[in-house]
Amino acid sequence: MSGLIFDLDGTLIDSAPDVHAAVNKTLEEIGTGGLPLEQVRGFIGNGVGVLMERVIAAKGLSQDAHASLLSIFRRHYDADPATLTTLYPNVAETVAHFHAMGLPLGICTNKPEAPTRTILESFGFLGAFDSIVGGDSTSARKPDPVPLLTARDRLGVTDVIYIGDSEVDAECAQRAGLPFALFSGGYHRQPLDELPQSARFDDFAELPAIIARLLAETA
Ligand SMILES: O=C(O)COP(=O)(O)O
After folding, report:
1. Measuring CA to CA, how many Å separate 80 from each of 70, 122, 168, 219?
2. Which atom belonging to ligand 1 lies closest to the Cα atom of 45?
């Protein structure tokens, strides 16, 4: 039995506008000017703790403020994580396609589990995903393989393909020993050709054919 596990930010959703809004509300609350959207987009992918370290470094603030800034950020973000967030083109149709096929589907993201669930619910996706692992759901975060292997175990399948957008996801899949399909339209920082990958796609409409090929190879 095989399943699919998806990364969230930069893969299924463009979450950067809501993350950016919460970062700038946090900075405003401490009387500091905001950061541009594109800079904050580049800070996403290693979880909210690292995001806040990058914000603090970008603003030249003291890392001593990390815990309090992270808690202000979580208050703003968790209250409103989906208003400005959008699905990438053809994501809804493609997830519905895999769900209708009866493929077990999971999420493995470094975003904390609570806002992950709020976002999935707001897009009507909660019922489609049987296993949701966030950055605070296990003892480790990607690129450590533990969250991805936990998501696989919770799906109750032996074979999974991981679908993600970044060097964090590519390394995680490699360390977990799982096939990896790379979405080129997300938040990667390294050149795409340098990332370990089993397949690459630019549009979710291409994914069903890629998954059919990878599943046939793993069978
Ligand atoms: O860094 C985050 O908070 C989430 O990023 P991810 O969904 O790409 O794992």
Report:
1. 15, 11, 25, 42
2. 1
